[in-house]
Amino acid sequence: MTSERSIMKLLRAILGRPLLNLLGVLLLAVLAASTVHAREYDDVIKSQYIEFAVYRDFPPYSYLKEGVPAGIDVDIAKRIASELGLEARWQWLTADETVDDDLRNAIWKGSVVERKVADVMLRVPYDREYAYAQDGYGLPRNDMVVMLAPYHKESWQLVRDIKKTGEVRNLAIFQYQPIGVEIDSLPDFFLVGTYQGRLRENVHHYSTVYGALADLNAGKLSAVAGMRSQLEWGLPNKPSNFDIDDDGLEALGRKSWDIGIAIKENYRQLGYAVEAVITAMIDSGDMAKVFTQYGVSYELPSTYELDAE
């Protein structure tokens, strides 16, 4: 309430007490109406349910299968809820322009339309540099949330039809061969700009990576760039001439990144409880089994790799 006290003190100096009383009541009413409160750990346990924010139509992580929630993140969330003795509920999140926007909509403020927040958000980039990033005024960009409990390492990779690309392992071949990408993804920007733009004419854009994979299967493309998990899930019966790796992407700004959870900054007890379940799943091998069920390779987050060294 520090900001509210500051505003009231300023109004007192300008207006005096008579008008202050009326304006103060109106101000506090507006602030209360505009604030969406996350739930403390005890509130979550008492309610007997926990609500997870997951991305809408985002296979293999979170999607509806015949009207039923499914996906890697959905299964992880169900396991977390079960271990805490709670029912899992869902807040389906439509990706906004940035992760900052998604965190605001899902965790600490709520969207303009629904004004509702979830208890936990899944599939959040777990990165110390990002977590402590500052805005243009030198203020923390993400001080309203805490990111913790990394549970997977994701990466950008290429799937090639080696009948068309041969043994060439760099990107030069795509000066002559077509490659598909999801529009406005990092590989899209990278491929269009690399080699002084000489690949641009052969970079084909799709609304999703799965549209590109369909054309790869149909022989219309020589390769597709995307997230490894999506490439693997989208090719359940991968032909022997399709090869998935990150060769040629060495100059990409960030080839891999850890994935974790986010909670409201002042409700860390809930985050620690969720983190304990995730850690146990990783240590027991159950986390890897979740990914395997979807035909996706599991890779330990960087935190675990450092601990093993």
Automatic annotation (TrEMBL):
Record localization: Cell envelope
Pfam families in the cross-refs: SBP_bac_3
Segments crossing the lipid bilayer: none
PROSITE patterns: SBP_BACTERIAL_3
Keywords: Signal
Domain (Solute-binding protein family 3/N-terminal): residue spans on this chain: 51-294
InterPro entries: SBP_3_CS (IPR018313), Solute-binding_3/MltF_N (IPR001638)
Family per record: Belongs to the bacterial solute-binding protein 3 family.
PANTHER family listed in its UniProt record: ARGININE-BINDING EXTRACELLULAR PROTEIN ARTP, MEMBRANE-BOUND LYTIC MUREIN TRANSGLYCOSYLASE F
The protein's name: Substrate-binding periplasmic protein
Organism this protein belongs to: Zhongshania guokunii
